[in-house]
Specification:
Layout: E1 24-27, H1 46-52, E2 58-61, E3 64-66, E4 70-72, E5 80-84, E6 90-93, E7 103-108, E8 111-116, E9 118-123, E10 126-131, E11 134-139, E12 142-146, E13 151-154, E14 157-162, E15 165-169, E16 178-181, E17 184-189, E18 192-194, E19 201-204, E20 208-213, E21 216-220, E22 226-229, E23 235-241, E24 244-248, E25 252-255, E26 262-268, E27 271-273, E28 278-282, E29 296-302, E30 305-307, E31 315-319, E32 324-330, E33 333-335, E34 340-343, E35 352-355, E36 358-360, E37 375-376, E38 381-383, E39 388-391, E40 444-447, E41 455-459, E42 464-468, E43 474-479, E44 481-484, E45 493-501, E46 504-512
Parallel strand pairs: 1-2, 2-5, 3-6, 4-7, 5-8, 6-9, 7-10, 8-11, 9-12, 10-13, 11-14, 12-15, 13-16, 14-17, 15-18, 16-19, 17-20, 18-21, 19-22, 20-23, 21-24, 22-25, 23-26, 24-27, 25-28, 26-29, 27-30, 28-31, 29-32, 30-33, 31-34, 32-35, 33-36, 36-37
Antiparallel strand pairs: 38-39, 40-41, 41-44, 42-43, 42-45, 45-46
Length: 514
Amino acid sequence: MKTKLFVFVSLFVITAFTNLNCIDYYVSPSGDDNNTGTELLPFKTIQKAADVAVGGDNIYIKEGVYNEHVILKNTKPDLLIIRSNPGDTAIIDGTGFDVYWSGIVDIVGQQNIHIEGLRVINSNGTGFWCDSSRNITIIANSTYNTASSGIAAWNSNSIIIYRNKIDNACSNMSQECLTVAGCDSFETRDNSVSKCYKEGMCFKDGSRNGEVERNIVYDVINKLGIYVDAWDKHTFNINVYNNVVHNCNSGVVLASEMGGLLENIWVYNNILYDNKFLGIDVSYNGDDTTVKVHPIKDVYIINNTVVNNGQEWGGGIANSNRDATNIIVRNNICSNNLSFQIAHEGINPSNMEIDHNLIWGFRDYPDEERGTDYVEADPMFTDTTAKNFHIILGSPAIDAGSPTDAPIFDFEYNLRPYGNGFDIGAYEYYPIGAVEIENDETNIEISPNPFSDFCVIKTEAFADIEIFDSFGRSIIKAKGQIVWEPDFNLSEGVYFVSGRFNNKTLTKPLIFLK
């Protein structure tokens, strides 16, 4: 895929920046802030530990409920880690604190902070708030009953939001359940958002160079699932992929509400089903009538599976933005959506390329399009009732897609293409046993991973090994073993190692850091 990007560093290596001379501090409900903060003599409040700790230190919070507003600080280059004690879940209850335009856990103007395993409840503002900061990781936390966002990052850079769970957020209808605004270089991966009152996830207001990957948003009945909105600033280079959105107002929506340019947005390998209105929408959203232009350009909607969207009205993929240009809709399965499968809703269709999609249930809706090189047939899902949208042997989607700009992996990170061509939809068809390989003789060993200088890739079965970059370009190939020392000019990021064992294929991610 052209212009595909990966963020500068992976969450898997955050501990690599910690100070070996760190001090461990402990917090317990039975502690005392006059203690020394050791495991035997813990502090009573998280704030006391946060005031004492510096970059390179660890704060371990033991099981219990802490009624606090926590302000975290670190300006040093070493990483400050704040986490629940292993095996415990520390709950921070914000009842009684006024944090309307901040959070129960606050990070403002700081750097190099890692938060893990905490639960924040009952905030009259945000749960976790990050503003004007850099190198912040928010990992494996949860929030419940926040008046505004569960997690929000504003005007920051190098932000990782990973494996968090957000429920019952935005009860006062402020902001979005997970908000990233004005941020550069962000990763939002493996998060779950459900049963909330505003948009599930929003990436907006000048955000750029970001990955929105493997998240699930569901049961956000009256608001959309994933929203990318330029607002009034240039917002660009954002990849939305391998996500699931269901039972929301709409699935993935792109917008320029206040006239900022939204540019170079990739939406691929997503599964979008049972939403009230639309699966994917290139929208004309914006309530301010003084804003006359809502510019969106270079949008790539590729290899998504969009099924059963629309209740009283709605459809699969729509472009309703008359100012949008170069909108590519390719290799998508649009099946049994209510009012239409793919439509351009009154705009000039010359601004769109619609090709190689599988359409099932063409409704002859005004401005509905089949496009070119389409397939019109039942996609043959494994089990629609069980929401299993794998395609089965004999599906007309198999080998019917276009290779142009297609992702090199599918929803399950299996390498594309398998067989004679790219499949249509989020899943590439693999015969049973072709991907999940248990035999040690057909395993790929990578060490170390992540790596910075060199890594060793080997198989026991003398298989064909090939490394691809995120554009799908071959970097190196060999048989049996590769000792890979990347050229200095090679970009850091995620690469893919493919091993072919007779007719079987195994693909693993490989992370290169300079």
